[in-house]
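Worked Example 4.2. Consider the chain below.
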Amino acid sequence: MPPRLQVLRGEFAGGVASAIPGLAHALTLGLLAFAPLGPEHADIGIRAGFAAGIFGGIAATVHRRSRTISLPSLNCAAVRARTNRAS
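Applying the procedure from the previous section yields the following structure tokens:
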């Protein structure tokens, strides 16, 4: 296998390995953000978390700056900001 293809294969595997826990984290935080609205809004929270995970990952990939806030940090910051504001 050519060295460049090995590098791309490793990059892809690393991206998938980091995306799976990140997406699970985004789904959990989406559910947590909609929890005060009641159990009937749980599906909306999960969808919002999924959308944030996908679009946040795309935005971080396209933007590619050293100061980009990645998916888990952005979701945590949003939930913490809302929690601090409510109390």
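The chain has one domain: 3-86. The chain has a mean pLDDT of 77. Compare this with Example 4.1 before moving on.
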